[in-house]
Amino acid sequence: MHSTDIAHARTPEPATGDRRRWFALAIVMTAAFMDLVDVTIVNIAVPSIQRDEGATFSQIQWITAGYALAFAAGLVTGGRLGDIHGRKRVFLVGIGGFTVASALCGLAVNPEMLVASRILQGAMAALMVPQVLSIVHATFPAHERGKVFGLFGAIVGLGAVSGPLLGALLTEGNLFGLEWRPIFLINLPVGVAALVLGSRFITESKAPRALKLDLPGVALVTLALLMLLYPLTRGRELGWPVWGYVSMAGALVVFAALVAYERAKGARDGSPLIELSLFRVKSFAAGIAVQTVFGVGLGVFFLVWTLYMQIGLGWSALRAGLTGVPFSVAVSVAAGMSVQQLVPRFGRKVLQAGALVMAAGVLIYLAEAERYGLGITSWQMALPLVVMGAGMGLIVAPLTDAVLSEVPREHAGSASGLINTVQQMGHALGLGLVSVVFFGVIDERLAPAEVGPAFVDGFTHALGWVAAVLGAIFLLMFALPKRPAQHVEGAADAEEAAVAGAKEPELVP
Q: Which pLDDT tens digit goes with each residue over 197-213?
């Protein structure tokens, strides 16, 4: 899950006698699972939403990017609110708001309402999700946490495989004639149960010394990303107007203002949204770049892949979901091998090999998509997807630990929160770039017979971009430490951050 300011969130060691802690664990794990599945479920249902609601392609991008943007912008603040006002209280507010937002998504009467509800859902997830590890840390003594983190890893793996399939089954099932809406409405009974049980079984905890909020920092980050993303998603539909280029250039000015403000905020009270001193650590700065660029590549691939299979090839949501299973399984297997066996022996080379293996899978996929065209089958996709999944598994599990390995212990919590934030921001940016790398090569007005070939061409063009992104990631990884340092003092931070890095919404289609 997303570890936010853990270093500042130490609480007295909890007692082992309270059985309620296992009920509390089940509740927060359910919330974590709900968040993970919600993102993956939406991706597989996007073509159905587009068809049934008549949404434009830019609105489709915002249904996914809006969630990622709100989630990213609120993550660090969500963690700090829990430290200040109580993790249980903020968790319950988050899960209650997430449930209401899910209902609004399921009842949306037009694409605009759905986009707005998804942004609200992302903001509520940013309150809910950072509390999970903090509640675990406050509820379980140190000798039990290893077992808990192992259980959490299993939940992440289950969500990775079940999310797309559950989304496909709910979409195909057309329960009560509701089409795609059950993918959101399924959260209602789960959310209500978690709210009722959580209020009873979760023990309240706060940080002894919590950092202050940095709302101007959040506002500047959000404004800069909106100034960048909105013109990217709308530009093609509007004919790339001049104001779009002005807005994107202005985003750089806002980012510069953010850096100046964060520097002043850090000097004034020591609680900036972004701890700028971390970027003096070469491996951390490079790792943040890797996380951001990786998020961009995954944001591009998964949305384009879903559109290619369901709109381009005309496959059902269920067939598309089943086609992605080899990928999910390969990610899970390779991630386990990477952390337990390979990285301890070979260090950074494992991550770089992962980037090259994943790029090889992308290029195999590109060659097969061009060769077979509209006649490609799920079986023919299995090889490139397994290769891609294996490469991705080698990267995602050990990357967070590699990025954090040279960060001072007192900044481990802030650093891990920032890692998760920038990956979500990269994901949102990748979803915005779909307008350029995919829709940019597809004519706006296509006859029905032209849709399939056009989407195949767009898919292969986007895959070329994804391969180039993975090449850039391979080069950036040379700045990571050859072998992640083992912090004895900060072992808890590293372990929690590694678990945090394991949960990413863009892991699966």
A: 999 888 888 877 778 88
